Amino acid sequence: MIGASDLARMKKGAVIINTSRGPLIDEAALLRCLREDWIAGAALDVFAQRPLPPDSPFFDLPNVITVGNVVNDGSVWKSSNTPGNDFEVSIYAPGHQAVRGYNKDTGEVKNLYGGTSMASPQVAATAALLRSLNKSLTAAQIKDIITRAATSRNGTPVLSVDEAVLAVINL
After folding, report:
1. Containing H/E element for 14?
2. What confidence score (pLDDT) does residue 6 get?
């Protein structure tokens, strides 16, 4: 488990990305570090309690991106993180039917299973890409750009990397 002492040893301004298991990080310690700006931001798809309760403090932090996953048609997958206050899951990305392989002999594309463990790396990579384009962007600004640039699929905000990149270029 990553506890308060581990988080305190991190370089000020670090970003946490957890796509592993929720209980891996002491959530109370992480919340404290995020509120005190010791940790600059976090992208999380897993939590000790899943789905998060609507009153979770993670939903209220501008420097936290919570990730959900959708099926290819844009519908929210049944095991995805679900919205909290103000219907907040920061962004959804394709996860449940993410391509996991291709059989060149039969032409079959394997895209079963997955989940937020497939969706979160897409969101984290997008955040890193945006930061590389403009090093002065804060975690809150990156979250805002990603969520504003999302494409709506069946009313669900789904990650749109190209629109997010364009938004940063046009700043």
Report:
1. strand 14-18
2. 92
- Unique residue bearing structure tokens 């930061």: 131
Burial category of 103 from C-beta neighbours within 10 Å (exposed 0-12, middle 13-18, buried 19 and up): exposed
User: What is the greatest pairwise CA distance in the chain?
Assistant: 55
What residues of the chain score a pLDDT lower than 70? 21-22, 50-51, 68-102, 109-120, 154
Round to whole Å and give the CA distance between 49 and 28: 13
What tokens appear for 71 in the block? 């099926």
CB 70 within 8 A of CB 88: no
What pLDDT was estimated at residue 85?
A: 40
Closest CA to 8 of 30, 35, 41, 28: 30
Closest among 165, 151, 170 to 73, alpha carbons compared: 151
For residue 97, the SS3 value is coil
3-state secondary structure of 95: coil
pLDDT at 66: 76
Read off the pLDDT of residues 154-163 as tens digits, 9 standing for 90 and up: 677 777 888 9
Give the burial class of 157: count Cβ atoms within 10 A of its Cβ; 0-12 exposed, 13-18 middle, 19 or more buried: buried
User: What DSSP line would sit under 18-82, residue for residue?
Assistant: E-S-GGGB-HHHHHHHHHTTSEEEEEES--SSSSPPTT-GGGG-TTEEEEEEE-TTSPBPTTS--
